[in-house]
Every structure is written in C-alpha cells, then in structure tokens.
Fold:
Amino acid sequence: MQNEERIRGIIQKAAAKAGLEVGVQAIEVENTRDPKFGDYSTNLAMKNAKKLGKKPIDLANSIIGAIDDPLVEKVECAGPGFINLTLKKESLASVVKKILEQGSAYGKGNDKHFKINVEFVSANPTGDLHLGHTRGAALGDAISNIYEKAGYEVTREYYVNDCGNQVHHLGLSLLARYKELFGEPLELGDDDYHGVDLIEIAKKIKEEKGDSLLHEKTEDVLPYFIRYGIDTELAKIKKDLGDFRVRYDVFSYESDIRKGDAIPKLLEELKPHTYVLDGAVYLKTSDYLDDKDRPIVKSDGNFTYFLPDICYHYDKMARGFDLLVDVLGADHHGYINRMKSALMMRGYKPESLEVELVQIVKTFQNGVEVKMSKRTGKAITHRELVAEVGVDAVRYFFVERAASSHLDFDYDLAKSQSKDNPVYYAQYAYARTCSLLGLGRDIAIDPEGKGLGSEDEKAILKHLADYPSMIEGAAKGRAPHRVAAYIQKLAALVHAYYGLTRIIDRENPNLTGSRLALMKACGLVLKDALGLLGVEAPEKM
Structure:
C-alpha cells in the first residue's frame, strides 16, 4: 500500500471518530509544496465542516486528535483548516525496498478483470503514414501500455479499410503506372494517387507478371491491382509502425466485415431505426446522441462508410470487450455521437465507446514552420521524421502534450543534447543512476534506506511513492502526458540530487549504500516509465 492510500485510510478512520463519515476515495491528499508544512496535506475538514455545523479549524483539530498511527510522526492544523502530516523517515524510505524487490512490477495495478480494445492509426493502405498517424501511433501505443500497467486487459487493433472508393482509385492508379512502364501515356484522374511510390510497386508487378495484364479488360484485372496495392502498402505501414516500436494484436479488415450476410443481417436488425429519403436509407441517430440522422445506404444502393463501421464496432463488442477506445484524428469529432448512438441501438451503454481525438502536428526548424520534405518536396512523412530525429525523440515529444492539444514539433530541440530537450534530460538522468551504481559497485546497497532523510531525499522518496497512483490516474484519463510529466519531475530530482549530494562517500559506506539504493530505485522507475511511452533508457550517454 502506498503512502497516499495509507494516509487516506488513517484520515478516514480519524474522521469517523470525529463524527465525519466519508469514503476513502473522497479524501484528497496532496504532497505539500513546502517541507515546513509536512509531507502531505488534506482539505477534508474545509470541505465537510459546513454539513456538520462546525468551523473547519475545529473539525480539523478533532480529526487530528483522533490520529494515532505508527506511520505518522506529526500532524498539524494550518491556515483555515488544512491538515498537514509528517511521516516518519523510515516510513518514507520503505518505498526503496519495495521498488528494489518488485523491479518493473512496481506500480502495476491489480487485475481489473476489464477488457479494453484500443484501435489506433488504422490508416488507409493507400500511401505512406503522415505525422497525424505518427501522433496517433505514439498515443495509442502509450495508452495501451499504461492500461496494461494499471491492470487492464488490452487488445491493440488496426482496422484496415480495404474497400471503398479510396482503394478503388489506388487500383486504378497502380494499373495506370503499370501501363506507363510499357510506354502507354499516363492517365490519372483528380481522385487518383499521383505519388511516385506507386511506380516502384508497378515495377514489381511487371517483374512478376510481365505484360500478361497489359491487354486485359480493366474490370477483370482491377481487383488484382487493388489487392496487390493494398498488400504492398500495408506491409510498408506495418514495417514503419514496427520500427516505431508499435505492436498490434489484431488486424481486422473491412473486406471481412463485408463478407457473407453480416451487413444484410445488420440492416434487418436496424430497420426499426431507419427510414428512406430520396432513395437513401437513413439511421435515426438523432433519437439518441447525434445532432442529425445519418445515411447508411446511398440512393444507388451502395453502403456509406458508416454502415460497415457500425458492423465492425458491433463485432468488437461481441468479442467481449468492456470498453472500446478509438484513437482518431481531430476531424472525426462528429463521428463520436453517431457511433455511440448506433451502439445504443443494440443496447450498449454510450460509455462503452470512448474516442481520443488527436490534434494536428506542425513541424518547425530554426523557428520556421516546415511543411515539405527537402528530399521529395512533398509533405513530411512518418518515415522521414523518424529517420531524421529518431524513435525516442518522436515518441516522447508526440505524447508529452495531451492529445487534445495542438503539437508544435521542434526539430532542433528534439535533436539537441541539452537539458532543454525533455527526452535527453530524462534519459541522461537514468544514465546517471547507472553510472553511480557502476562507480559504487563495491559498496553494498542498503534497501532499507537507513539514514535517508534530507529534504532532497524526502522529495525523491515521495515522488517514487506517487508512481502507482500516477499510473492509475494516467490510465483512467488516457493521459500519457501525465507519465511524461512524472518522468520530468523525477529526472529533475535526480539531477539536483546528483549535483548537490555526495552520493558516494567511501568514508560513510552505510549512508552511501542507502543512497545508491535510492538511485537504483530511481533508475528502475525511470526506465519503466520511459518504457510506457515507448522510449528506451540507455545506460550510457
């Protein structure tokens, strides 16, 4: 049990003796900003005094008088009714032993018996990933990691849109490039794909098929070109994401959703919620959360993209997930309530789907916005950015701000080796802990933390003790940026401690052993937290 949890329990018990019944989770406990006010503080008396007809300061003193626990060294009332607690040094230091014993398991939550599906990126397999996909990949993977750390069962999923108008034009474009290789004039429409990457794919087809497809009817060979293009583009996407340390458990295909009678059955099921207008079939999503009804079948009989998406989300729920999380671009804001409405039509609660909208990314170099690749003259791709800056910097920078915030990515900062670069600053803190342990390898580490009690040491100990609760909060809020903020503070504490404290003092091996144990604990937590964001922790820099 962590310090904050213990303190909540202590305060709850004392409050009950003082006549205040309150749930333990309703008790707010915070680190004090100034050590002279103790280690932790709560405003419980100020929040609840009125309903008991008491003054906050009187209720606070009543609660203080009822506190009797070996964890607590001193309790005081401050200001209008804050309760400040100072813990015994050995109580704070106990976190070191726990971290050294548990290693990477420290901070892992109990099994929640709650299954979550996180679908992210799901880029159409029609070209290279762009920076919006990069941010979605970094966020989706980090959210999944944090969920798992907190004790949830997570499935990472990619939905492959291998049907519809976009892949149709991919096939036509690839066919045009194939014909061009045999001297035919290039004919590409406005909606076709003009990227030169299709030339290389067309060359592979030429190598494999020669001119055997050249004089066939378009309708006969188009399915081949569509599938070849999809498979090749998807293979590139999978490689790029794998190189970015993103893994998936499931790849689902729209073509599979459309097979068989799943969609006809769905249309029959949704009939009570539909009507026909101008030959098109509309879903009455406005009966639920949507601002207007949405077409699911066009007047020409073709499905809108929304219908297979409904079928896909129903399929995910049928697989037994308690929560679906979709990580989507900011332009999908209108999608949320229409899909929630469709889920409600089958009896699912609206909160069974949560959508994380990812805001746009702008890139800057030398203070000037950079939109185009110097190499290609086209928009900067995911692959190019990662190749130039590195996986660690891109992954860290792309999650250190909330998904709802616009991201300005600074090339120069991301590549710099300075304290202003947050990922370098954090990795250097970890490398310092490794260096210290190497220098003091002949000194026995004391996991009990005897002698740790300076204000710098107490600040580190309290921050280490906060790690499990931070993980819980980051999971509930789907907030990788909270992990990044935690890492930055721990890195700052390590750097400050390194600069101000004689950690290895061979004239005092006992205290040195405790301090090395503290640094080892810091290193373990830093490495684990960085790993949640998909960032490596190098031992030397």
Notes: The first strand starts at residue 30 and ends at 31.
